[in-house]
Amino acid sequence: MRLLIAEDDPKLLKSLVHIFETNNYSVDGVDDGATAFDYAASGEYDGLILDIMMPAMDGVTLLKKLRSNGITTPALFLTARTETYQKIEGLDAGADDYLPKPFATGELLARVRAMLRRKDNFIPDLLRFGKLSLNRSTYEISYNESSLSLSAKEFQVMEMLMRQQGMIVTAEQLITHIWGWNTDVDTSVVWVHISNIRKKLDILSAPVSIRFVRNVGYILEAIG
41 Cβ partners below 8 Å, 6+ apart? Predict the structure, then answer.
């Protein structure tokens, strides 16, 4: 099994590499998020072990970018950030597991073994609207065997619309869900992302529209 470890603490990185090599893993270690992305984007790893707070690119951004580019390699966040909302943020970014520092070596190895077993039994996590599907692992939208990648925000908009099929979703609900309560984002930003999704639906020739209901919000509908 081949692992990529991204950790900016040189002593901990050296220790992690030693732990996994001692346990018969092939390991590459890097100390910043941008380099980790370049390595992981190759798709040549069986698992990723990522710190969250790293220079050049943080771990959450790194994993979101990988998932949006179709890289489904299992990932475990190993981090000192332990607040519940931070764990949710990491898992929502596409992580398979989350282990806080400091950690016990035995638990780390056990969690990585479990993560790699899940890889062998991977089943895409899909939302469906008729024959249109949204892959929540790869951030891809598909119709008739054709697929397009969505940006992280486009994915979150489409996911919310597909999860609330037949219901109108207000721009305010989208803003709160995706950007949070205290954001300065306004409805024009939502419109831009929905416009981009519409273009991708057109490229796929998917018989699906996102209809705007004046003064209310958006609803996903089948065409024809």
Answer: 66, 69, 71
Long-range contacts, 56-61 (Cβ 8 Å, 24+):
56/32, 57/32, 57/33, 58/33, 59/6, 59/33, 59/90, 60/89, 60/90, 60/93, 61/33
Amino acid, single-letter form, for residue 78: L
Please report, for residues 19, 20, 112, 145, 178, the alpha-carbon distance to residue 46 in angstroms, rounded to integers and kept in the order given.
17, 13, 10, 26, 30
The tokens for 84 are 């519940």
| C-alpha span between 50 and 186 (Å, rounded) | 33
Q: What is the DSSP letter of 32?
A: S
pTM of the predicted model over 0.85: no
* Kind plus residue range of the DSSP H or E element containing 211: strand 208-213
Q: How confident is the model at residue 95 (pLDDT cuts 50, 70, 90)?
A: confident
Q: Cβ distance 115 to 96 under 8 Å?
A: yes
pLDDT of residue 84: 63
Tens digit of each residue's pLDDT (9 = 90 or more) over 156-193: 899 889 988 889 999 998 888 787 777 888 899 999 99
Q: Give the tens place of pLDDT for each residue, 117-167.
A: 776 655 556 889 999 999 876 778 999 989 998 887 898 899 889 988 889
* Domains of the chain (ranges, CATH numbers): 2-120 (3.40.50.2300), 126-222 (1.10.10.10)
Gap between the Cα atoms of 23 and 160, Å rounded: 42
